[in-house]
Amino acid sequence: MMAANIAHNFNNILQVPLGYYDLMLEVLPPTSECREYVDLSRKAVERAAAISQLMLVYVGQGQKQTGNICLASEVQEVLAEFKKELSSEQELIMDLDCGSALIKADFGQMSDLMTAMLTNAAEAIGTGAGKIRVATKVVGGEDQELGQIFGAEVTANSHYVLMEISDTGCGMDPDTLTKIYDPFFTTKFTGRGLGLATVQGIVHGHHGAIAVQSELGQGTVFKIVFPLSVSTH
Ligand SMILES: Nc1ncnc2c1ncn2[C@@H]1O[C@H](COP(=O)(O)OP(=O)(O)O)[C@@H](O)[C@H]1O
Ligand SMILES: [Mg+2]
Prior knowledge:
- It contains seven helices and seven strands; from the N terminus they run H-H-E-H-E-E-H-E-H-E-H-H-E-E.
- The protein is an alpha+beta fold and 233 residues long.
- It has two domains: 57 residues; 165 residues, Heat Shock Protein 90 (2-Layer Sandwich), CATH 3.30.565.
- Strand 6 and strand 7 form a beta hairpin.
- The site of magnesium ion has 4 residues, from helix 4.
- The site of adenosine-5'-diphosphate has 23 residues, from helix 4 and helix 7.
C-alpha cells in the first residue's frame, strides 16, 4: 500500500539523523553550546519519528497478529489487570457482551487502545472517588443512534461492536475537545499527548470510528465501533 510505503520510508530516513545526533554528542566537548542545538534537533526528529509511527498505525500497518477476535473477552484481561491499580473508592464497571460476534483485529493494538483509554479515564478522576464503565454490545449499522454519532463513516446495514468507555472524571471544555486527537496535545504536566492520537490511528486502521461526548465537570463518554467480521446475526 502506497501510504504505508511512504510512512515506512519516512520512518527509516529519520533513523539516520537520530544516529548522527548520538555521534555528535559523543564528540562535542561537554561545554560546547552546540550540545543544546543538537539536543533540540534530536527532540524535533523524535517527534517526527513518533508521527511516522502514528501514520503506520493509521493505515493499518504495525498490526502483528491479525485474527478474528471477540473484543469483549480479549479486553477482559486488560481490564482485570487495570482494576488492581484503582483505589478502593474507584470503581470499574464492566458490561461486556458481544455474543459470538467477532472483529478482525490485532490483539496487541486492542490492548494498547484499552490501556490508553483506561489511563485517561483514571487520570481524569484523579485521586478521589469515581467510576469507569466499559461496555460492549453489538449494534446494527442502520441503528439511528449509530448514524447520529458517526454519520456517514458508518455504513448502513452492517453490524458493529460498539464499545463505550465512560468516566465520572473532570470532563473537557469545548476547546480541549477539538484538540484531543492531535499528536502531542496534552493538558497534563507529564503528559505526552500520544494516547488518543494512537487510539484514533488504531481505530482507523481497523476500519472503525470513534466519537466523544464530554462537558467540563460532567465526565466523559467515548464510543468506538468496529465492523464485525464474523457474526451469528
Ligand atoms: N477521559 C478523559 N477525561 C478528560 N480529559 C481527557 C480524557 N481523555 C483525554 N482527555 C484529554 O485529552 C488530552 C490528550 O489525551 P492523550 O492523547 O491520552 O494524552 P495525555 O494523556 O498524555 O495527555 C489529555 O491531556 C486530556 O486533556
Ligand atoms: Mg493519555
